[in-house]
Amino acid sequence: xPSGGIAPTLWGSxxxxxxxxxxxxxxxxLGLARLPRERLLFGILACGSAIVxxxxxxxxxxxxxxxxxxLALCLGVGAGxxxxxxxxxxxxxxxxxxxxxxxxxxxxGGLHYCWLGTDRxxxxxxxxxxxxxxxxxTGHSRA
Length: 143
Description:
single chain; mainly alpha
C-alpha cells in the first residue's frame, strides 16, 4: 500500500518517525498540551511539520527532512516545558534520576536507529565508507 511521506509505506513512515523522534514525540506532545501561552504557536508548527513530513513526497532530494527538524524543535520545547513542570514538584533526590532517564529515553530512538544498522543509519554508512576506502587503498575489495 503506497503512501506519501518520508517512507514508501505507512508502516515505514511510522517506523521512521519512531526511530527519529523516539520518546521525544510522546514527551513533546504532553508538554505542548501543558504550555500556557505558546501552545497554539508550537502546536500549529508541530502539526504542520508532521503533516508535510508524513503526507507529502518530494522525490528529487531529501530536503523534506527539514520539516522533521522543525518538528523536533517544537517537540523539544514541549518536552522541556514538561520536564520543568515535573521537576518543580519533585524532590531533589528524584531530579537526577528523572533527568537521566528522560535523556536516555529521548535519544533512544536515534541511538537505536544508528546502532542497529538500518539502511540509512550512520553505522551502515560508516561501514560502507570504510569498505570503499579500503578498496581504494588496496586496489581490490576485501573478501
